[in-house]
């Protein structure tokens, strides 16, 4: 040790040590609710807006593979509200259909389907959010986000790399699971795996992030997988052309741009 | 055999020309954002379940191939969607783009441009739809194809195309849509050549040997139509007001001089609201049909004015099972004048026509199997129409289906009761590419 250190330098070292220990301490001190809220933000609200091309492959237990291709636009509207626009390209019988969602975190979402053959904006009745999204193993709630307020969260394990959260539904009758365990990356706060247990406590469903990349500084899931372990059906989502903060105008999420798909989905 | 009038042939030729032009433009390489080519091949066959003395048992033996070309250019969106159709059971084979007969059924041939920042204009042949009803229409005065609907074609064929200029203006206070149809776009109404119907002149059910004699309205720009809609969202409720100036869409009038059915003049006004309510979705729509050729209601050859009301509610009963209920009312004005002036030979209708509809939809097998039933039931007319349908998708490309159109009624002149002898079952397969 250099004996010529001034008291000021000692003070600086002590201060840095204090910050480091506080930061280390803070990591373990985050409550389960805080971890879940940060994971929810990074998973569903990253950036002000964004776009992605999604390629879904559904491999059902009987060996048939089905495909869905769509372009997704998203815009945050504040207070947890969001607007989504999905423009379908495949399969052929849903080509050029568009799906519009105004997400209300505290209630039912407003949803519309654009049927080009009828030139019709069809409003969709509020539905059970735990039904399959476009016939895949992902559920509507996996895509739009499950409100953290619907579950009790308990931090069951915390390592340097991962938080493990147990989630128990406040209204067990409303859902098909009794609990689900989510593994959250301690650095990025992205959930990497969620395991769902039924009312007999059997693991029956798993959703996982397969590939994560950083895009515009935002950790982003580029490939995800949903497995129905009982029916042995697996859906893989591959994301491409992901962009954030592209300056989407709110008016894109209206009837005008159902009739005429916006440039942002065509590029 | 029915010979199409000359003007009809001129319109056919015109549309082939326009279609060809759009096709060339669509395929012209440019700085296209995207060129999208899709379509399907659809084979289906339907037959009557009972004898109809005036018709064949076969109601549909159809092969249909659709091509759908969309070109997203930098300034315009071009669209061509056309079906090549061969239907062995068709009553007419002569090409007629207005009635949907012949080998070519042109569904869409249009271009959409944005001349002003707040305005989109779509010009050409297009499918137009608005209003809140599910298979019931009050303010949607765009043409319907009842023949396709009753004979087992896909539900989308209920909407017939219009040759129109459709301008949409988007203001902060509301959206304004104006549809101008230079030529009158009547419904593809039931006229007897494939589906038997109640002929009011004969006073009985009639079929292929007694086609409905109709005085057509064919002069472009003189016999035109305008539909207008104002719409906006208030919170998440969709509110709209509508107006229409044109003609009754079915030949419900009669001209004594020619002995033909006519399309009397009509104006309609209406409003609708739609939104979430409790665990479901509701809609309310009202309309006033101003049959102004017979304001007093005492002309037996022209329908009286009517008020129409529609209430609907839809809810998911449990996961993958949804139900939608609608109540619909047609209330005739000046009913006593109607009663007084009605010829003794004509069956009398009620002042109120009530209709209830119920739609049940069950999804299964990861949404690859759809079981659905749509039911119309009129307690006042004492008739009903059931549309059960089962669809199964073994792969993304292939769809198999079987369905039925079941009519039942106490009287032979009511809206659905007249079609009793057309009750049919159909099945088929569609390959989409």
Task: Give structural notes.
With 267 residues, chain A is α+β, with helices and mostly antiparallel strands. Chain A has two domains: 1-30; 31-266, outer membrane lipoprotein receptor (LolB), chain A. Helices cover 18% and strands 44% of the residues of chain A. Chain A has five helices and 13 strands. Chain A has a 13-stranded antiparallel sheet with strand order 6-5-4-3-2-1-13-12-11-10-9-8-7, with helices on one face. Chain A is globular, with a radius of gyration of 22 Å. The mean pLDDT of chain A is 90. With 433 residues, chain B is mainly beta. Chain B has a single domain, classed as Porin (Beta Barrel), CATH 2.40.160. Chain B is built from three helices and 22 strands. In chain B, the strands form three sheets. Chain B has an 18-stranded antiparallel β-barrel. A two-stranded antiparallel ribbon of chain B has the order 8-9. A two-stranded antiparallel sheet of chain B has the order 12-13. In chain B, β20 (383-392) and β21 (398-409) form a beta hairpin. The longest helix of chain B is centred in the first third of the chain and has 22 residues, at 6-27. Mean pLDDT of chain B is 91; it is low at 1-7. Classes of the chains: A alpha+beta (267), B mainly beta (433). Chains A and B meet through β6 of A and β1, β2, β4, β5 and β15 of B.
